[in-house]
């Protein structure tokens, strides 16, 4: 039996969501301990898009300037036809966008953002960040929660935040659901920008769309690196199957694409790929003194680049609720999930709809989609208003997309 430790707030998982939450809760005056299963805090070597909704929270945490040192601020979000190689639509991210939403749209290396958050956490006087702490059981005893790690150590906490990602242990306390796959897989990674020639405009975030696929490109780390994400639907996927989304399928699927993508795909690392999952939204994240945050609460496909942004929004809300309701954990968690569940459920569902739009293969649907996209003005912000127009938007009565 390992040692027993008492903490005020325990955060399980030191990803972007867990660290942002730890910081926000610490700023609300609580002692916080983060347990991370990995031997080191870190993130994978790929890019991350951050909408103004996330940048606003980073600013509130005092990290806007620090994060901006590593960020790239693109001029436009562009949608290209992956087969014909032509532009379909764009969203202007310039002055009008910034004045409308208060903050710019940024793209960063994941590990740069993670490092900025981890360093800020380490500067907090009342926080500890622990690695090699895989949580294996969580028990709510009413006045406190008992958390057991694989190494035998035990933590007694007044409140626990399960920020342990898609395969969350904490979520199992609430619901028996499983991550849902629909056959999509992602290959991703960043390469030095200097050696990269197969791209659209470097000032833009570009999403190439085509039948059952999309391909994303943008520069990161102050324009040193170029990030690429290649996504496609595996023809070999069926429920229970293991061997799907392999590199030979990637090449076969992308053979239909325009020459720029065919060339760019050669820069994609093939040694690792990510099968895509989400889950159905749930209407409760809380059991007693345990609640969920980020991907453990609302895992979503990445097609709208909002998974981490929503986790960051969650953190802001949780921090505010700790500030407002202090020691009453029941109220903190009740108010937190009341604000966050409708909003994140809407994003989860909208991402699925957006996935169907961008991955369409029926020629008539594609023709209609492309015609509508081509007619949109780049300063028409109506499609993103609900998402970026203040992250406390009441979402209940709004249509999905
Ligand atoms: C291809 C791709 C592209 C994406 N692009 C974007 C984008 O551009 N913008 C965006 O906002 N989002 C994007 N996302 C989504 C985003 O990556 C996630 O939503 C976000 O990282 C979730 O953060 P999290 O902290 O909730 O979970 P995670 O990042 O999964 O972190 C969970 C942490 O918990 C730890 N953990 C798990 N179990 C335990 C345990 N039992 N004990 C202790 N520790 C544990 C894990 O090791 C991990 O460190 C993308 C996702 C993918 C797959």
Features:
monooxygenase; FAD-dep_Monooxygenase_BioMet; transmembrane helix; binds flavin-adenine dinucleotide; 25% strand; 11 helices; FAD-dependent monooxygenase; globular; seven-stranded mixed β-sheet; disordered C terminus; 401 residues; FAD/NAD-bd_sf; alpha/beta; FAD/NAD(P)-binding domain
What does this structure look like?
- The chain crosses the membrane at residues 7-25.
- Its cofactor is FAD.
- This is FAD-dependent monooxygenase.
- Residues 7-348 form the FAD-binding domain.
- By secondary structure, this protein is of the alpha/beta class.
- 32% of the residues lie in helices and 25% in strands.
- It contains eleven helices and 16 strands.
- It has helices spanning 16-27, 52-60, 64-70, 95-101, 110-123, 247-254, 259-264, 307-325, 329-358, 363-375, 385-388; strands at residues 4-12, 32-35, 47-50, 76-81, 87-92, 106-109, 127-130, 135-140, 145-149, 154-162, 180-192, 204-210, 213-220, 225-233, 274-278, 290-292.
- Strands 1, 2, 7, 8, 9, 10 and 16 form a seven-stranded mixed β-sheet that branches.
- The termini are far apart.
- The structure holds flavin-adenine dinucleotide.
- Residues 12-18, 35-38, 48-49, 133-135, 163-166, 169, 186, 188, 229, 274, 294-295, 302, 305-309, 311 line the site of flavin-adenine dinucleotide.
Q: How are the SSEs ordered, and which strands pair?
A:
Blueprint (H helix, E strand, L loop, with lengths): L3 E9 L3 H12 L4 E4 L11 E4 L1 H9 L3 H7 L5 E6 L5 E6 L2 H7 L4 E4 H14 L3 E4 L4 E6 L4 E5 L4 E9 L17 E13 L11 E7 L2 E8 L4 E9 L13 H8 L4 H6 L9 E5 L11 E3 L14 H19 L3 H30 L4 H13 L9 H4 L13
Parallel strand pairs: 1-2, 1-10, 2-7, 4-12, 10-16
Antiparallel strand pairs: 3-6, 4-5, 8-9, 9-10, 11-14, 11-15, 12-13, 13-14
Helix pairs in contact: 1-5, 1-8, 2-8, 8-9
The chain binds flavin-adenine dinucleotide.
The site of flavin-adenine dinucleotide has 34 residues, from helix 1, strand 3, strand 11 and helix 8.
């Amino acid at each position: 039996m390992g040692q027993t430790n008492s903490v005020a707030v325990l955060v399980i998982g030191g990803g972007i969501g867990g660290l942002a939450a730890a910081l926000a809760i610490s700023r609300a005056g609580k002692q916080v301990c983060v347990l991370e299963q990995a031997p080191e805090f870190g993130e994978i070597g790929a890019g991350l898009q951050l909408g103004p909704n996330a940048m606003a929270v980073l600013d509130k945490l005092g990290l806007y300037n620090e994060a901006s040192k590593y960020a790239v601020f693109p001029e436009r979000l562009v949608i290209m036809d992956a087969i014909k190689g032509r532009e379909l639509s764009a969203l202007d991210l310039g002055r009008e966008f910034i004045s409308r939403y208060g903050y710019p749209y940024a793209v960063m290396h994941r590990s740069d953002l993670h490092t900025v958050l981890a360093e800020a956490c380490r500067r907090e006087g009342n926080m500890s960040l622990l690695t090699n702490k895989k949580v294996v059981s969580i028990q709510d005893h009413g006045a406190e929660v008992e958390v057991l790690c694989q190494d035998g150590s035990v933590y007694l906490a007044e409140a626990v935040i399960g920020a342990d990602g898609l395969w969350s242990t904490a979520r199992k306390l609430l619901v028996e659901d499983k991550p849902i796959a629909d056959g999509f897989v992602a290959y991703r990674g960043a390469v030095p920008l200097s050696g990269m020639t197969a791209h659209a405009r470097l000032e833009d975030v570009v999403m190439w769309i085509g039948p059952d696929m999309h391909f994303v490109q943008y520069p990161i780390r102050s324009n040193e690196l170029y990030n690429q994400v290649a996504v496609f639907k595996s023809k070999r996927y069926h429920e229970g199957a293991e061997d799907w989304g392999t590199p030979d399928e990637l090449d076969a699927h992308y053979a239909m694409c325009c020459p720029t993508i065919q060339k760019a795909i050669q820069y994609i690392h093939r040694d690792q790929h990510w099968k895509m999952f989400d889950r159905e939204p749930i209407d409760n994240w809380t059991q007693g003194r345990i609640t969920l945050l980020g991907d453990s609460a609302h895992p979503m496909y990445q097609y709208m680049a909002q998974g981490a942004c929503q986790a960051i929004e969650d953190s802001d809300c949780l921090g505010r609720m700790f500030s407002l309701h202090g020691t009453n954990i029941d109220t903190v968690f009740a108010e937190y999930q009341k604000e966050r569940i409708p909003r994140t459920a809407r994003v989860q569902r909208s991402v699925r709809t957006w996935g169907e739009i961008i991955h369409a293969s029926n020629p008539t649907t594609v023709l209609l989609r492309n015609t509508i996209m081509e007619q949109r003005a780049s300063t028409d912000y109506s499609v993103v208003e609900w998402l970026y127009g203040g992250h406390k938007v009441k979402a209940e009565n709004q249509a999905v997309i």
